[in-house]
Amino acid sequence: MGVVVIDVIVVGGGPTGLMLAGELRLHGVHVVVLERESEPLPYVRALGLHVRSIEMMDQRGLLDRFLAHGRQYPVGGFFAAIEKPAPERLDTTHPYVLGIPQTTTDRLLAERAVELGAEIRRGCELVGLRQDEHGVTVELGNGGTRGDGGVAARGGKELRSRYLVGCDGGRSTVRKLLGVGFPGEPSRVETLLGEMELTAAPKTLAAVMAEVRRIHKRFGAMPLGDEVYRVVVPAEGVSEDRSVPPTLEEFKRQLRAFAGTDFGAHSPRWLSRFGDATRQAERYRAGRVLLAGDAAHIHPPTGGQGLNLGVQDAFNLGWKLAAEVAGWAPDGLLDSYHTERHPVAADVLHNTRAQIELMSTEPGPRSVRRLLSELMDFDEVNRYLTEKITAIGVRYDFGDGHELLGRRMRDVRLKRGRLYELMHGGRGLLLDQTGRLSVAGWEDRIDHVTDVSEELDVPAVLLRPDGHVAWAGEDQPDLLTVIPRWFGTRIG
Ligand SMILES: Cc1cc2nc3c(=O)[nH]c(=O)nc-3n(C[C@H](O)[C@H](O)[C@H](O)COP(=O)(O)OP(=O)(O)OC[C@H]3O[C@@H](n4cnc5c(N)ncnc54)[C@H](O)[C@@H]3O)c2cc1C
Fold it and tell me: Does residue 98's CB lie within 6 angstroms of at least one atom of ligand 1?
């Protein structure tokens, strides 16, 4: 058995894997990211970050970089593309969607991971995997990039680590090699997506688009400048192999079928297709191997949630896995990754299924859509759905207690600075208005902050490194019963 030198191998350099690598590096974990593609692909899938992801970037000191490359949009109108204004009283200091292409998000997360000391090995494909009680052995491919989701020829080269996380996308090789089930529904419809030039006059184009979109919600052309548009149109059927890109001719045919014109489409930058399969891994952990992001759950892009869900998985998992590697993780901490994140993704799968039904052109679903649209005029309904899509409504089950328990906490003003500025290091934090509490014995894992300037409706809260409230109260003995559950035994 070879010597274990790598703490964690992250398979897949998409947003989930890159976020995770950065989180692990915050805690000094030796991490190597294996990415099959030798260069980033040009396809732009996700177009933005929702509130919870924006908050996370703020909590890690990354938000300025993202704001510099993105545009802020109102949070309203995302659920099933039902056009509504943003709800009132959204409990966040970042009440907007940050429009930013996934290619930029991936680049920024890669830069951050590398700055923190992660090693990203491109053109490196995992083709085999086995584990024992001490670690995981990975077999690498022969360096040839397949790009079609298939497994490359075995290369005979091996790497070994203590843990491995499969962040290798919806067709995850890691998940398949583990034999973890991925139950759900196959794609029923397929959509073409690409960037190309359109010669039609912008006003005519906008008018035709608006007319078609009255019925067909999976149709659109978003101007990107210089006559280049991001075009979305339903495909004719469901293809056998979605990694084979459509042709420009296929696009033009579908545009003519839906809009009566192909808008003079030409000079494509890239063309792709995506389906609406909805599936979730039965378990997110098998021994020393874990799954995160699309490798653990896939669903249609409705509401723009997939990337967000993946980086939020990484935010939940990073500190727990780091604690395991460091040796202070209490029993059950790593398993709580599945317990907490599996229900969250299951809920997203439900809401995307619902959104797909609400976007159907059939008369029944269109009536349901009309009714829901009316209901969304009630601020409470609008807010409930917006909290779902933005993920600020997520509440982990930590048992009964204060209404903040299990929820993430919004930013809070301190006498000097803000709460989120104190979370850059990914440590636990006791926010204490009483000034009487103590985290003695855990100072290496938990910071203690007392200079709160804003009135909170609770005397003190204990935040985990992912910003979720682990405890709320004012009683020291009570606090001491909770700390070990998340932060292990005290030193000394
Ligand atoms: C059209 C479309 C629009 C979307 N819009 C949005 C949106 O607006 N908002 C949103 O939040 N989400 C959106 N999504 C979803 C989002 O793109 C995905 O959820 C997100 O990319 C998942 O990130 P990931 O890192 O988990 O997986 P991926 O991005 O798929 O990354 C997986 C990586 O693993 C690599 N890999 C795979 N196999 C191996 C292997 N064996 N060895 C080494 N490397 C491997 C791949 O090359 C890839 O780089 C959209 C998706 C589509 C299709």
Answer: no
